[in-house]
Amino acid sequence: MPVFVFSVMSVIILLCAHDQKSDAFSLHILPNRLQFFEYEAVTFYCEGVVYCEFVHKVKGKIKTCPKGSSCTITNVYLDDSGEYWYENEEGIRSNSINISITAGSVILESPAVPVIEGEDVTLSCRNKLTPSDFMADFYKYGVHIRNNSTGSMTIHKVSKSDEGLYKCSIVGAGESPESWLSVTETQTDPSSQPGCHIYLVLRTVFTIIMVALLLLLVGLLHSGKIRATTPKLNSIS
């Protein structure tokens, strides 16, 4: 029984540790958006580690990036579009971010990382040639959903149903590429997951069993000593 409990505990400990390690590795990007104009600067940085290597899905490891915790591409080009992630010293891969580089005049500024359910999220239509406010139209899966004279739209208390492909357009300037808005559930502590709760219960049970066995062993040893000394006492008398 103790061996079985110990084995189960070991498995659950490893699972909980893996979940915590996976959550700790995270790729971020500055500015926090998925679309960029050609020749803009983009900075990637890795969270949860002090050493990482940045990888492009097609190009492989980015040779111009030093091995560290951040990497800045001073001028991005059209072929820099695509999926990026980082790998730590052990070769463990982080989450990925898929960015789009355009030579056009309009981009949609949407978060590069998932938005947490219940938060507000703002999508902005950006005109490369005109920084002031302008009328912008917003689309989800190609269907017009809203227009705004300030060039942005806010989704209040975002939910999973708000996930999808968004784009925007500006009359006389053009249309942005499409980007995926990702929504995730409320963040929780990995230690609060059911598996980790089971681990805590099993750890307590295991401790109780081991203490009981230890007390039983001590009792048996003590009983054996008493039996061993009794004949000696009888012979002396």
Automatic annotation (TrEMBL):
Gene3D superfamilies: Immunoglobulins (2.60.40.10). Coiled coil: none annotated. The keyword RNA-binding does not apply. Residues 104-184 form the Ig-like domain. PROSITE patterns: IG_LIKE (PS50835). Residues 1-24 form the signal peptide. GO terms for biological process: cell surface receptor signaling pathway; immune response. Keywords: Disulfide bond, Membrane, Signal, Transmembrane, Transmembrane helix. GO terms for cellular component: external side of plasma membrane. InterPro entries: Ig-like_dom (IPR007110), Ig-like_dom_sf (IPR036179), Ig-like_fold (IPR013783), Ig_Fc_receptor (IPR050488), Ig_sub (IPR003599), Ig_sub2 (IPR003598). The chain crosses the membrane at residues 198-221. It holds the Pfam family Ig_3. GO terms for molecular function: transmembrane signaling receptor activity. The keyword Nucleus does not apply. This is Ig-like domain-containing protein. It comes from Astatotilapia calliptera (Eastern happy). The lineage of its organism: Eukaryota, Metazoa, Chordata, Craniata, Vertebrata.
